[in-house]
Amino acid sequence: MGPKARGAAGDRGFTLIEVVVVVFIISLFAALTVPKFMDVGQLKINRSATHIAHTVTYLYSQAAAHHLVVRLVFDLNSGKYYPAIMNKKGEFEPTKFPLFSFGTVGDGIAIKKFVTLFGGGFNGGTAYLHLLPDGFAEKAVIMLEDSTGRKLSLVVEPLMGNVRTISGEVELDLTDILS
Questions:
Q1: CA distance to 66, 68, 122, 125, per residue, from 128 (Å)
Q2: d(C-alpha 125, C-alpha 75), whole Å
Q3: Which residues contact 66 (CB under 8 A, 6 or more apart)?
Q4: Alpha-carbon distances, residue 90 vs 35, 68, 144 (angstroms)
Q5: Which residues, at least 6 apart from 27, have a Cβ–Cβ distance to it below 8 Å?
Q6: Which of 60, 68, 83 is nearest to 136 (CA)?
Q7: Is 3.30.160.20 the CATH classification of the domain at 40-178?
């Protein structure tokens, strides 16, 4: 008998070149997708900022449309926020609107800075932002920070109730209001 045959053509294994190509493709896929998984924290802080911004814009429109004085109240310790309206006695009482009753910043996200035009800076406890019936929002800066130290600032513009989101820490600019 001669040397043993290698086997049928269908039984042959992968060549070294085929294995190297497959490993390269898997490595390339991992290199492109793993950094996206690392940005989950960025998504959380962006989602919190977007929700607060949309809440301010919505309550601004509700205050103007229904001639209400609306206060958006923030509990800086727990990260919860909710609307309150001024009653006939001039006191604010919590309320619910059709599209918003309360919100919360995400896990691992904290409100690190809260400064308003009328109220000044808030350092813990309760902070608030006023939205007035004549179509005016209190100018404010709300800074969020995640557990990695990433900061995102929301700047509330008074005349249109728009909210700009800016990466990093922003100071409240009073020059355009006072001049």
A1: 20, 16, 9, 10
A2: 6
A3: 133
A4: 52, 12, 31
A5: none
A6: 60
A7: no
Residue 51: count of CB within 10 angstroms of its CB = 16
pLDDT tens digits for range 8-64: 555 678 888 988 999 989 888 888 876 665 556 578 899 999 999 999 999 999 999
Q: How many residues does the chain have?
A: 179
Beta strands in 21-104 (DSSP E): 70-75, 80-86, 92-94, 103-104
Q: What is the CA radius of gyration of the chain?
A: 27
Instruction: Choose between 149 and 8: higher pLDDT.
Output: 149
Domain limits of the chain? 40-178
Name the token pair of 21: 């190509």
Other CB atoms within 10 Å distance of the CB of residue 59: 23
pTM greater than 0.85: no
Residue 116 CA, chain-centre distance (Å), reads 19
SS3 93: strand
Distance of alpha carbon 151 from alpha carbon 134, whole angstroms? 32
End-to-end CA distance of the chain: 104
